[in-house]
């Protein structure tokens, strides 16, 4: 995967921004960044797009800024000169695509049909924008289109919000989603940047959807694990599940047959997207322990990983049991 696409995939959400007031650009981007969204698509639906991209690139070089609604080669040139790292277009304009490819610029053109996907593939592309997403059939349409085109990846945009974004992001062929739902116009008009930051945090929290899934407790032997699990079952009626390395009492308690990571045990946190969780946690100084990662053999998606986080003798790991080994 192209490194810029990998970064966009790790973030998961691409804010689609029209700049109507140039003075809003930097405080808006700062608010999004503080909220956990360190990328932006600045659309050429405004005369201020080029200047906004330039301002962002110079002030916040760590922000992955791209240009959207690019319709012509001239706009693509202006965007790249201003500092855009990628180009997104609403349709598949072969001249713009070829110019971007010739100049080693990442281009994500818009499509909504199978014939357009085939044209994109002929041009050598493996990632397209599915637009307008909701009115073109939504996540189901992408799933249907991806069946014959297994190598194609999608970034859907149009009508996507916090309530339906998982319909799209749960599809293996979807790298990220685009939208403006974290940028309510009333907050922009009132210059409520704290409100924008809160909306961005809310979007990332909804994206990662963390849940406590179980607590692992270290014991010294299989007999001890079975004994303590049975006690929990007797007291609280939890069903027992015997595993190769532990016994579960219900879904919430795992009694390990031997001491594992953590002096006392571990705490398992569910997230549907471990890669994105790892990316966001790294911003907080919490890193993944690479040698603990396990992946789905078909998709290579992470389904399990320990973190270098220990609280009161309990190590933390991420898990997505829906992503099978």
TrEMBL record:
One of its GO terms (molecular function) is 2-dehydro-3-deoxy-phosphogluconate aldolase activity. It is an enzyme of class 4 (lyase). InterPro entries: Aldlse_KDPG_KHG (IPR000887), Aldolase_TIM (IPR013785), KDPG/KHG_AS_1 (IPR031337), KDPG/KHG_AS_2 (IPR031338). Its EC number is 4.1.2.14. SUPFAM superfamilies: Aldolase. Pathway: Carbohydrate acid metabolism; 2-dehydro-3-deoxy-D-gluconate degradation; D-glyceraldehyde 3-phosphate and pyruvate from 2-dehydro-3-deoxy-D-gluconate: step 2/2. It holds the Pfam family Aldolase. Keywords: Carbohydrate metabolism, Lyase, Schiff base. It catalyses: 2-dehydro-3-deoxy-6-phospho-D-gluconate = D-glyceraldehyde 3-phosphate + pyruvate. Homotrimer. Belongs to the KHG/KDPG aldolase family. This is 2-dehydro-3-deoxy-phosphogluconate aldolase. It comes from Anaerorhabdus furcosa.
